[in-house]
């Protein structure tokens, strides 16, 4: 779980929730609202982005705002606090802008996904995009869900099914997933992540 700093002005430590536009104090209610927003974001994003759309840094911000904009003022804006999770120190907030500009160049070069790409090529691109976004962790919250949303949009471009989201709540899978992300962080190695995604990607 992402750790919150005691001086984090975006977090309500008394109630254990991020400060939100709706004034929700109950963690379970807020989680439910976020889940509803995610479902809605899938629908809107699928309608908005065409099968031949090359994604960019702007799209990354726009999709995150589409997901959480109704709940948080900072949705679609890069975080200003440092975060850590599962023995990983994500990109320092001060360096996010520069890292995202570099990532945007890669993202535009790797997209759109097309039907003529074979599964190995799909997995290679997916692993790199997913791994880099998670390591940068550009937003205050919702990075994992947003990244899966973006990757599912890319899979749909190539006429693949979205990845099975249930796996990301499986304890065994999560342990392997965190290890794979650590390899991206430590050695810029996407192979474990690609192997983990292989059985989740199908037409």
Quick recap:
With 203 residues, the chain is mainly alpha-helical. It is built from seven helices and four strands, in the order ββααββααααα. The protein has helices at 27-48, 57-68, 96-110, 119-136, 143-157, 171-187, 191-197; strands at residues 11-12, 17-18, 84-85, 88-89.
Cα radius of gyration in angstroms: 16 Å
* β-strand amount: under 5%
Which structural category do the helix and sheet elements fall into?
A: mainly alpha
Inertia-based shape: globular
Measured as a percent range, the helix fraction is: 40-55%
Write down the overall mean pLDDT.
93
Number of helices: 7
Strands, count: 4
- Any idea of the CATH class? Mainly Alpha
Reported for the largest beta sheet, the result is: 2 strands, antiparallel
Q: Give the CATH architecture.
A: Orthogonal Bundle
Write the H/E string, N to C: EEHHEEHHHHH
Q: Report the end-to-end length measured between terminal Cα atoms.
A: 32 Å
Taking pLDDT < 50 over at least 5 consecutive residues as the criterion, the unreliable ranges are: none
User: How many distinct domains?
Assistant: 1
Which superfamily, in CATH terms, is the homologous superfamily?
A: Fido-like domain
* Strands in their spatial order, largest beta sheet: 1-2
């Amino acid at each position: 779980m992402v750790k919150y700093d005691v001086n984090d002005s975006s977090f309500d430590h008394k109630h254990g929730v991020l400060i939100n536009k709706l004034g929700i104090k109950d963690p379970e209610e807020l989680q439910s609202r976020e889940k509803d927003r995610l479902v809605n974001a899938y629908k809107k994003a699928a309608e908005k982005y065409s099968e031949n759309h090359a994604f960019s840094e702007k799209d990354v911000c726009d999709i995150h705002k589409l997901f959480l904009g109704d709940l948080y003022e900072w949705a679609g804006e890069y975080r200003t606090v440092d975060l850590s999770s599962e023995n990983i120190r994500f990109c320092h907030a001060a360096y996010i802008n520069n890292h995202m500009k570099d990532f945007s160049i890669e993202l535009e070069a790797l997209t759109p996904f097309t039907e003529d790409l074979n599964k190995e090529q799909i997995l290679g691109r997916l692993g790199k995009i997913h791994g880099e976004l998670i390591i940068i962790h550009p937003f205050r919250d919702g990075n994992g869900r947003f990244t899966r949303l973006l990757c599912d949009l890319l899979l749909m471009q190539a006429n693949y099914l979205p990845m099975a989201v249930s796996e990301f709540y499986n304890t065994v899978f999560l342990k392997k997933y965190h290890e794979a992300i650590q390899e991206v962080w430590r050695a810029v190695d996407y192979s474990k992540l690609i192997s983990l995604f292989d059985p989740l990607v199908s037409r």
